[in-house]
Amino acid sequence: MIKTVGVVGAGPAGVAAAIMLKRYGIEVLLFERRTVGGLLNNAWRVENFPPLEPCTGEELCRKLEDRLTDNDIAIINEEVTAIRDRIIVTRRARYKVDYALVATGTAPKRLPTLETCSRVVYEYRDIPPGTEVIAIYGAGDMAFDGAVRASLRGSRTLLFSRSETLRAIEPLKASAEKAGVELHRAESILRVEPDEALLKITTSLNVYSADALLICIGRESLIPRIDSDRCEIIGDARGEIYRQASIAIGDGIKSAMKIALEG
Ligand SMILES: Cc1cc2nc3c(=O)[nH]c(=O)nc-3n(C[C@H](O)[C@H](O)[C@H](O)COP(=O)(O)OP(=O)(O)OC[C@H]3O[C@@H](n4cnc5c(N)ncnc54)[C@H](O)[C@@H]3O)c2cc1C
């Protein structure tokens, strides 16, 4: 019988699973290496979650945190390094569980040659405070979402897309145009050199100065070392192409129900 479940990751998938398990009377150990809400912490505006009015990602994260508190679920603020048979391993300790749900989300696709200093980041929340000019590299929803958020916050925002084609959905493209994002299509970033407090960004067409560079060129599944068949991967970590908070939440709920009802 499953009495204790370790949930690794407190993004939407992990939080939903943890709450549902708790409702079935199952003890939950919820691990998070950063903050509750996961990638949603970066979202400018979440408009596709029908039960809620459009709101910021940070507001949604606060709601997730509140629901954890309501359900008496504490966060274990530790990074999980491995899952062995019925043992969850962190840098500090080992935790015995009957089953594990791996809700660790995704990691960014990186461009190591551009990572010349700490002002080159892969998530909006890592942009240093006081950034007045931000360069963003990417052409998908995450790049455009970040560009709109930065621009509305008052930063001059330069968005560079390697190709002419922009993958972001139309409403985000329209919001970016309205917010005054400076769009540079078919302009690859070739080099980034720290230059005093600024970054000197050389593209295929020109040279620019910016305070920081946000790279959003895609993400891929992130999973700790697993040597156990007593676990399941849920949410974005599953590596499917369709990745949304609501899908991750549904996934978490479904897996929790399967554990509770099928053992
Ligand atoms: C800019 C942006 C805008 C978005 N806008 C929307 C939107 O409008 N609507 C929508 O539905 N979705 C949106 N999304 C997508 C949504 O955020 C993700 O699909 C969702 O957060 C995935 O949930 P998850 O729980 O599977 O993974 P994540 O949210 O990635 O959470 C994984 C968590 O696991 C933690 N973790 C990872 N490894 C470990 C480890 N080894 N030990 C401990 N903890 C670990 C991470 O720190 C993280 O908190 C957006 C995403 C971004 C980046």
Automatic annotation (TrEMBL):
<dbReference type="InterPro" id="IPR036188">
    <property type="entry name" value="FAD/NAD-bd_sf"/>
</dbReference>
<dbReference type="Pfam" id="PF07992">
    <property type="entry name" value="Pyr_redox_2"/>
</dbReference>
<dbReference type="GO" id="GO:0016491">
    <property type="term" value="F:oxidoreductase activity"/>
</dbReference>
<protein>
    <submittedName>
        <fullName>Thioredoxin reductase-related protein</fullName>
    </submittedName>
</protein>
<feature type="domain" description="FAD/NAD(P)-binding">
    <location>
        <begin position="5"/>
        <end position="233"/>
    </location>
</feature>
<dbReference type="InterPro" id="IPR023753">
    <property type="entry name" value="FAD/NAD-binding_dom"/>
</dbReference>
<dbReference type="InterPro" id="IPR050097">
    <property type="entry name" value="Ferredoxin-NADP_redctase_2"/>
</dbReference>
<keyword id="KW-0285">Flavoprotein</keyword>
<keyword id="KW-0560">Oxidoreductase</keyword>
